[in-house]
Design a protein that fits this description.
By secondary structure, the chain is an alpha/beta fold. Among the domains are: about 55 residues; about 170 residues; about 180 residues, Rossmann fold. It contains 22 helices and 14 strands. The protein has an eight-stranded mixed beta sheet with strand order 7-14-13-8-12-9-11-10, sandwiched between helices. It has a four-stranded antiparallel beta sheet with strand order 2-3-1-6, covered by helices on one side. A hairpin with a 6-residue loop joins strand 2 and strand 3. The longest helix has about 90 residues. Its main location: membrane. This is Polysaccharide biosynthesis tyrosine autokinase. Keywords: ATP-binding, Cell membrane, Coiled coil, Kinase, Membrane, Nucleotide-binding, Transferase, Transmembrane, Transmembrane helix.
C-alpha cells in the first residue's frame, strides 16, 4: 500500500492558516501556563517571604502608642491693626510650621532633658542599618536631607534627641487645626510621658514665641518713636529758621474762628491797598469840589452856586453883610440921590464886603487846590509803596512755596509720629491681654495593649509582596529564556507554522514497542505526517529536507522517524544522510566509513551507485554519508546531487534528506534549495531564538521552501503544564489514547 504524494503549501500560507481562528483567551492561557510550570517557584518565594516575616515578628519587641491632641488656632485680640505684628496672624502655613517645630532638634533636646532620656534604653547607640543607608545616600547623592540630622559626635544627649526626632509622629486632618502628636516605644508609660512632654514644650514654645514677638515689637516701636520725634522736631526747627531768614513771620487772626495766617509784608500790602483806594477816593472828591468851586466863580460867584466846601462861616457872614449892604444901598438909592454921601458910603461899604468876599473865596479856592495837590501826592506815595510791597510779597510767595513744602513734610512727620505713638500705646495695652492661641485638648495616657507590630497586617503585606515578587520573578525568568517552550511562542517569534511536537524518548522507543513512550513517539510522528499531508496544495512534493539551526537538535532522529513511519505505512522511502561533516551515529546508517553519498558526489563509484543503498527495513532505504575525501560544500554543490535527487524522486515515494545544521556551514542551504520542501527542527527550550531566526533567514534567502517547524526532544510532562494549545491538552489529559491503560478510550 502506498500513500498519496505529499502536497506542501508555500511558506507564506503556513502560520496564517493555523492561527487565523486563534481565540481571544490564548494570552491569558499562556500566563496560566507559565504559572503552572513555575508555580513551585512562586510558592517557594511566598513561603520564604511569609516565613521571614513570621521570624521577624517573633523576635520584634512590642511597642505601645500614645497620642495627645493640641489645638493650634491664632486668636489675637482685635486691637486696631496689631495683627500685623502678632505671630501667626493670617498664616496659611501655620499647621505645617507647628509640625516642623515639633520635629525640630531644639524641642527634642528639651524633652530629652526634661525626661532624662540621654542614655536610656532605646535612645542610645549608633544609627541602625536603614539609618546608615540613608546617611550614605545623603553623603553620596544628596538624598534624604533628614539623615544629616544624625549627630556625628557620640554625645548621648544629641543621640537621644536624634532618635526621638525620628520617632515623633504628627497627624493633621485637612481643614482642622488639631494636631495629633504620637510616638511608639517599648514602654506604654514612657510613650505617654514623651507625648505629654512634647505637647507641653510646644505650648511653652508658642508662649515664648508670642512674648518675644511682643518684646521685639515694643523695642522696635520705641526706637522708631525716638527717631520720628527727632525728625519731627528737626522739620519744625527748619520751618522756623526759614521763616526768620525770609521774613515770613505769621500774624494769626482769630476773628470768628481761625483764619489763615498772614505774613507782615502781605498784611502791609493789604493795608496800603486799602489806603490807596481811600486816597484815590478822597482825591477824586477834592478834585470835584475844586472843579465845582471854579465853575461857581466863573459864573459870578453867586452864593447859591458856591459849593459847600466854600460856604464857610466867614463867607456866609460876608455874604450876609454884603446882602445887608446891598439892601441898604437899594433903600438909599430909592430915597437919595446918586451923589448922596450915605448912598456913596453904602455903596462903598457894599463894595468892601464884596472885595472881602472875593478875597475869602479866593483863599478858599486856593485851599481846595492845595488839598487836591496833597491828595494827589498822598495817592502817588501810596502807589509807590504798594508797588514796592508787591515786589516784596512776590518774593515772599516764592519763599512760601518752599515753606509750604517744609510744612507738608513737617505735618507728615507729625502724622507718622502720632500714628506710631498710638500703635505703641495699643501694643503696651495689648501685651497684657493677648489670648492663648494653643491649648492641650487631650493628654496622652498609657496604652493597655501594644500597637505594633501588627501581625495580621504585616503577614498580609508579606504574603502579597511575596506573591507579586514571585510572579514578577517567574515572568522575568520567562522573558529571559532563550529557547522555545510552546508552539505559540515558536510561531509568534519565527513567523512559520508549528507542524509537530516530538517527545524526548530513548532509541528503543523510537524503534517501536509497547511502552507509553513508544506509543507517544509513534503518535507524534504519525501526527506530523498527517499534518504534512493535509497542508497540501497543487504542488507535488517528493523530496523533503530536514535541518536545524545548530547541532544536536534532533533533526536526524526526526528524519529517521518520518522515514520509518512512512515506510511502515507502505511507502517506498529513501533516507539520505547529507551531513558529510559530522554524520549522525545511527545504527540504521550502517558502519562508519561505509561508502555512500560522498562517494557518489565525488564520482568514485563504478556505475550509478545504487549498490550503496541499504534497506534497513521493508520499504526504508538508507543512503549513508560515506567517507568525505574533499570539501563537503563543493561536493554538495556539484550537479551530481541534482541528478541523484531526480533519480530518487522517480524511484521512491518519499525522499528525506538529513542535512547539516544551517548556521555552522552553508551545506544545508545548497541541498535545501534543490528540495521540494524543508522541515525546520527546533529543540525544545534549547535552541536560541536568535539562532533560529538567523537560520530561517538564510534558508529563505537561499530559495528553500520551509513548510514549518517541529519541536524536538520535548519533555511532555513539562510541556503539558506550560503549553496552552490542543497538544498540551492531549498530552495532559489523554496520554494513553493510543491503546494504553488509563486512556479512557472506548
Amino acid at each position: 500500500m502506498t500513500v498519496p504524494a505529499l502536497h506542501l503549501p508555500p511558506l507564506r500560507h503556513g502560520p496564517e492558516t493555523l492561527r487565523e481562528e486563534e481565540p481571544i483567551g490564548v494570552p491569558v492561557r499562556r500566563l496560566f501556563a507559565v504559572l503552572r510550570r513555575r508555580g513551585w517557584l512562586v510558592v517557594l518565594i511566598v513561603l520564604l517571604g511569609v516565613g521571614g516575616m513570621l521570624a521577624w515578628l517573633n523576635r520584634a519587641t512590642p511597642e505601645y502608642r500614645a497620642e495627645a491632641a493640641v489645638l493650634i488656632e491664632p486668636r489675637n485680640t482685635q486691637v486696631s491693626d496689631l495683627q500685623a505684628i502678632s505671630p501667626d496672624a493670617g498664616n496659611a502655613n501655620l499647621i505645617r510650621t507647628q509640625i516642623d517645630i515639633l520635629r525640630s532638634p531644639a524641642i527634642a533636646r528639651r524633652v530629652v532633658d526634661r525626661l532624662e532620656l540621654a542614655g536610656a534604653p532605646g535612645f542610645s547607640g549608633g544609627p541602625g542599618l536603614l539609618t546608615r543607608l540613608t546617611i550614605m545616600l545623603h553623603d553620596t547623592f544628596g538624598l534624604f536631607p533628614e539623615a544629616a540630622r544624625w549627630p556625628s559626635s557620640g554625645d548621648p544627649r544629641e543621640t537621644a534627641a536624634a532618635i526621638l526626632s525620628s520617632r515623633i509622629g504628627v497627624q493633621n486632618e485637612p481643614r482642622s487645626h488639631v494636631l495629633i502628636i504620637w510616638i511608639e516605644t517599648p514602654s506604654a508609660e514612657l510613650s505617654a510621658r514623651i507625648v505629654n512632654a512634647l505637647a507641653a514644650e510646644l505650648l511653652e514654645f508658642r508662649r515664648r514665641q508670642k512674648g518675644a514677638a511682643m518684646e521685639r515689637a515694643h523695642a522696635w516701636f520705641s526706637a522708631r518713636l525716638d527717631e520720628l520725634a527727632d525728625r519731627m522736631r528737626a522739620s519744625e526747627r527748619t520751618i522756623e529758621d526759614y521763616r526768620i531768614e525770609h521774613g515770613l513771620t505769621e500774624l494769626i487772626g482769630t476773628r470768628n474762628g481761625v483764619t489763615p495766617s498772614l505774613t507782615i509784608n502781605r498784611q502791609q500790602l493789604d493795608d496800603i491797598a486799602r489806603q490807596l483806594v481811600a486816597a484815590e477816593t478822597e482825591r477824586l472828591r477834592k478834585e470835584g469840589q475844586l472843579a465845582e468851586a471854579e465853575a461857581a466863580l466863573r459864573n459870578g460867584g453867586r452864593v447859591d452856586a458856591l459849593p459847600e466846601v466854600m460856604n464857610s462861616p466867614i463867607i456866609r457872614t460876608l455874604r450876609d453883610q454884603e446882602a445887608q449892604a446891598g439892601a441898604r444901598e437899594a433903600q438909599l438909592s430909592a430915597t437919595l440921590g446918586a451923589r448922596a454921601p450915605d448912598l456913596q458910603a453904602a455903596r462903598s461899604q457894599r463894595a468892601g464886603f464884596q472885595r472881602r468876599l472875593r478875597e475869602e473865596m479866593a483863599n478858599a479856592l486856593n485851599g481846595l487846590r492845595s488839598e487836591v495837590a496833597a491828595a494827589r501826592a498822598q495817592e502817588a506815595s501810596l502807589r509807590e509803596r504798594l508797588a514796592a510791597l508787591r515786589r516784596v510779597v512776590a518774593q515772599d510767595n516764592v519763599a512760601e512755596v518752599r515753606l509750604q513744602s517744609l510744612q507738608a513734610e513737617a505735618q507728615a512727620n507729625r502724622a507718622i509720629y502720632e500714628s506710631f505713638l498710638t500703635r505703641a500705646t495699643q501694643l503696651a495695652n495689648a501685651s497684657g491681654i493677648q489670648e492663648a492661641d494653643a491649648e492641650l485638648v487631650s493628654e496622652a495616657v498609657p496604652a493597655e495593649s501594644p500597637s505594633s507590630p501588627k501581625r495580621g497586617r504585616l503577614l498580609l503585606i508579606a504574603f502579597g509582596a511575596s506573591l507579586v515578587s514571585g510572579i514578577a520573578f517567574v515572568f522575568g525568568l520567562e522573558r529571559l529564556r532563550e529557547g522555545f517552550s510552546t508552539p505559540d511562542t515558536l510561531e509568534s517569534t519565527l513567523g512559520i507554522a508549528s507542524i509537530g511536537v516530538l517527545p524526548q524518548t530513548s532509541e528503543r522507543a523510537r524503534k517501536g514497542g509497547s511502552s507509553v513512550a513508544a506509543a507517544q513517539y509513534s503518535a507524534s510522528i504519525a501526527r506530523l505526517r498527517g499534518v504534512l499531508q493535509v497542508m497540501g496544495t497543487e504542488r507535488r512534493t517528493r523530496t523533503v529536507v530536514v535541518t536545524s539551526a545548530l547541532p544536536r537538535e534532533g533533526k536526524s532522529a526526526l528524519a529517521l522517524g518520518l522515514a520509518r513511519s512512512a515506510a511502515r505505512s507502505g511507502s517506498r522511502v529513501l533516507l539520505i544522510c547529507a551531513d558529510l561533516r559530522s554524520p549522525p551515529e545511527l545504527p540504521e546508517l550502517g558502519p562508519s566509513g561505509a561508502p555512500g553519498l560522498a562517494e557518489i558526489l565525488a564520482g568514485n563509484l563504478v556505475g550509478d551507485g545504487r549498490d550503496v543503498l541499504r534497506e534497513v527495513e521493508k520499504g526504508l532505504h538508507v543512503l549513508p554519508s560515506g567517507s568525505i575525501a574533499g570539501d563537503a560544500q563543493e561536493l554538495l554543490g556539484s550537479p551530481r546531487l541534482g541528478k541523484l535527487l531526480d533519480w530518487a524522486s522517480k524511484n521512491f515515494d518519499l525522499v528525506l534528506i538529513d542535512t547539516p545544521p544551517v548556521l555552522p556551514a552553508a551545506d544545508a542551504l545548497l541541498v535545501a534549495r534543490q528540495a521540494d520542501a524543508t522541515v525546520f527542527a527546533v529543540r525544545w527550550e534549547r535552541t536560541p531564538r536568535a539562532a533560529a531566526r538567523d537560520a530561517l533567514r538564510l534558508l529563505n534567502s537561499s530559495g528553500a521552501h520551509v513548510v514549518g517547524a517541529v519541536m524536538t526532544q520535548v519533555k511532555l510532562r513539562h510541556f503539558a503544564r506550560q503549553a496552552s494549545d490542543g497538544l498540551a491538552y492531549l498530552y495532559r489529559d489523554h496520554r494513553g489514547y493510543y491503546g494504553h491503560p488509563g486512556d479512557g478510550r472506548g
